[in-house]
């Protein structure tokens, strides 16, 4: 029989954790287990009721977390107005110079945004940014004429989510240092955003299961059907 760590044994009954809890109760249990010496990230993991092999059922969207994710987002901007983008919070901004920097191998940032007019040139680095999930995209809300507004929203807590090949979605929804009420609002908004992204070809009940966990904790199941009225 596999020997469990002291942290795992201190995390309580695994059957109880998997039973399905209201969001508030699940957060309470999670915070009680948070004993790391650093501020752990809280993550929401959702399993959908279909597979990515069904091409018309891809799930992708944007969530604006009311209290942010707790992570300082490093944003770069492809724009003809680099001064305005820097003033809005971008760590680096430009067009041809930024493209050259990326072509040389630099991708040390979290989100790339771009003006609509810049995208023609940005496509030259699509093979570099695409596999890393960093390519600006209208669907992800990272391409637009008001790039300064986009930068502000990203830094304030707007996150993109996308279903993976196993029909899972993961979203960082805060830190263990957040107030319990803030985590609750963030998790509920993330679940609602996923529900709103339901493809037209699917019926209610798209979300099969949901769990929250912190960086160092086991997962705790959420009773999504009880807490979140999906589709509303």
Write up what this structure looks like:
This protein is an alpha/beta fold and 232 residues long. Helix content is 31%, strand content 21%. It has helices spanning 6-9, 14-17, 23-33, 82-88, 96-103, 119-122, 126-129, 147-156, 180-196, 224-227; strands at 41-48, 60-64, 75-78, 92-94, 111-114, 158-162, 168-175, 207-214, 220-222. The strands form three sheets. Strands 7-1-8-9 form a four-stranded antiparallel beta sheet, covered by helices on one side. A three-stranded parallel beta sheet has the order 4-3-5, sandwiched between helices. Strands 2-6 form a two-stranded antiparallel ribbon. The longest helix has 17 residues, at 180-196. It is globular and about 50 Å long.
Which characteristics define this entry?
31% helix, 9 strands, three-stranded parallel sheet, disordered C terminus, 232 residues, 10 helices, alpha/beta
How many DSSP-defined strands? Answer: 9
Q: Helix and strand string, N-terminal first?
A: HHHEEEHEHEHHHEEHEEH
Which radius of gyration do the C-alpha atoms yield?
Answer: 19 Å
> Which bin fits the share of residues in helices?
25-40%
Overall geometric form = globular
Structural class from helices and strands?
alpha/beta
The helix count comes to: 10
Terminal-residue CA separation: 45 Å
Strand % is 15-25%
Which residue ranges are poorly predicted, with pLDDT under 50 across at least 5 consecutive positions?
14-19, 228-232
Overall average residue pLDDT: 85
């Amino acid at each position: 029989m596999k020997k469990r760590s002291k942290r795992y044994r201190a995390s309580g009954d695994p059957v109880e954790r998997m039973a399905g809890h209201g969001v508030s109760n699940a957060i309470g249990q999670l915070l009680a287990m948070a004993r790391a010496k650093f501020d752990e990230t809280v993550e929401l993991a959702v399993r959908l009721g279909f597979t990515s092999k069904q091409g018309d059922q891809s799930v992708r969207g944007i969530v604006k977390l009311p209290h942010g994710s707790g992570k300082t987002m490093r944003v770069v901007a492809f724009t003809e107005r680099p001064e305005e983008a820097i003033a809005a919070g971008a760590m680096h901004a430009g067009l041809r110079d930024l493209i050259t920097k990326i072509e040389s191998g630099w991708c040390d940032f979290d989100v790339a945004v771009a003006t609509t007019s810049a995208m023609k040139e940005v496509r030259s680095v699509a093979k570099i940014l695409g596999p890393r999930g960093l390519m600006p995209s209208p669907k992800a809300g990272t391409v637009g004429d008001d790039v300064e507004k986009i930068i502000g929203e990203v830094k304030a807590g707007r996150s993109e989510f996308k279903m993976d090949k196993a029909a899972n979605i993961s979203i960082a929804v805060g830190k263990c240092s957040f107030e319990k009420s803030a985590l609750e609002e963030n998790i509920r908004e993330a679940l609602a955003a996923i529900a709103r992204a339901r493809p037209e070809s699917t019926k209610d009940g798209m979300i099969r299961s949901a769990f929250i966990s912190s960086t160092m904790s086991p997962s705790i199941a959420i009773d999504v059907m009880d807490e979140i009225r999906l589709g509303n």
